[in-house]
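Re: that chain you flagged

S.,

Sorry for the slow reply, it's been a week of failed gels. I finally had a moment to sit down with the sequence you sent. For the record, here it is as I used it:
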Amino acid sequence: MTFSIPELNDKNKLKLIFYDSANLINEKHWEAINNNQNIYLSLNYLKALESALKHDIPFRYIQFYNDKDEPVAIAIAQMVRFVDKGSKYSEQLCILSSHLKTKILNSLDIKVLVCGNVFACGENGFMYNDKISHEEAYDNLNIALYRLRKSEKINGQTSMVLLKEFWPSNFQYSDHIKQNKYREFMIDVNMILKIHPSWKTIDDYLNSMTAKFRTKAKGVFKKSAQITIKEFDLIDVLKYKDRIEELYLLVLEKSDFSVGALNGEAFYNLKKNLTDKFIIKGYFFKDELVGFSSAFISNGNIDANYIGIDYNYNYDYAVYQKMLYDFVALAINKNVTELRLGRTAEEIKSCLGAEPTNMKLYIKLRNTVSNKLIKPIIESISPSEFELRKPFKADFS
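Prediction finished late last night. Pasting the C-alpha cells below so you have them in one place:
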C-alpha cells in the first residue's frame, strides 16, 4: 500500500511518498529518475525480488517531489535483522567486514534499516536528478529514513540506519550525510577489472598476461575440462531452480552472519523480468549440476553476483576459478568497460587483473547509548589485508 508518515517541520524538505510494494510505485516518475542507469533500481528487478522474498524481508520505496510536484529522487530500503547461523535463510550481507561480526553480531540482536540493496554491492539505494542540490538530496534522504524508521518501530538492543555503499567518485557528495549524525566507515574493497579495448577474445586477454599468470589460467582450464557449461534460459532456470537454491545456500553457509537469502523463485523471477540483462550459467559434471554463476549487465558494466558451488567438486575441477575466468570472457564478449567482481577472495581475483576499489558506508545509531557502544567498534573497522597480484606484462597499459 501507499502510506503516509506525519510531517516534520524541516527546512527545505521535499514531498515524500512511501510505498510497501513496487507494484504501487508511479512507474513513469520512478524511471524518470533511474532512466535505465542502475539495474538494481529498475522496477523489473525490484518486482522480481519483492515477489519472491516479500514474506521474509519488508521492502520499502520512497519517491521525492519538489514544490512543483516534479520527481527529483528515489530511494529503496529493507528492514533486516541480523540473526545467528541457525536461521532458515542466510546471506552474507556485503556491507560489514568480519571485524564487525566478531565484535558485535555474536553478542547483540541488531535490527537495521538498510538504504541500499542487501543482495548487491554498490550504490543501489538512492538516486536523484539535477533539479535538487547534493546537499538538499541527502538532507531529505535523512528525513525520509528517520520517518520510515520511526513508523516501522524498529526495536531491539541496538538498531541503526545504514546507507550502503558509495563509490569514491561520490564521496564528496555523500559525505554531506555526516552533518545529520551519520558516521562513515570503510569496508572490504570491491575488486574491479577494467576491460582493455584491445581484448576482443579471451585469448587476447591471456596474451596480455605474464607467462606465470597465463600458465596459472591454463591450469584452471585444464582442471575444469570435464566441466560442461550451459547458459540457462528461462525454462532451464525453472527446471533447476531447486538445485540452484541448494547450491546457493552451500556458499552462504560459509558466510559470517545471516540476514535473509534469495531462493529459487527469486532466480526464476530475475530471469523472467530481466531476460538477457541477467545471465545465469550452469556448471555440470556429467549430468549433475555442480555449480552456477550469475551476472547482471547494467550501464556498460557487468556485475558478477550470485554463485553456487558443490564444494565436493570445487578442488578437483577448479569450478570457482573457472567461473571467474568465464566472467572475464563474458565481459569481453559483451563489450563492456568493466567487470565488477565484488568482495571476498581478493587475492584470487587480483590474479585475474582486478584492482581494489574502496567503498564507503554511513551508519546512524538509534540513541546515545548505542552510539557510545558502537563508535569505537565502527572506528576500528578497516578493509581486510591481502597480497595484490600484478598479472599483466610490464609494457601492457
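What I noticed first: DSSP finds 13 helices and 16 strands in the chain.

Talk soon,
D.
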